Amino acid sequence: MALAWLETASLPVVELDSPGMVRRVLDSLCVRLDGEPATASTVQRKRATFYNVLGYAVELELIASNPVDRVQWTAPEVA
Prior knowledge:
single chain, mainly alpha, 3 helices, 0% strand, globular
């Protein structure tokens, strides 16, 4: 049941090859589920995970290159 939900709620990996979609995902990492801003360390951890997931997609040849490298985006600074 959880896997079925995950499949319907997730984007296909090929859609993440778009810089616009990557920017939307990166921006969403800055907000908690309750709508409040996430801490800078949380954003950095989530961005690192996202980057590694896309790197794995490159390894599996689902996308040609990691699209995060093509987006100029600055994470909040860690205090």
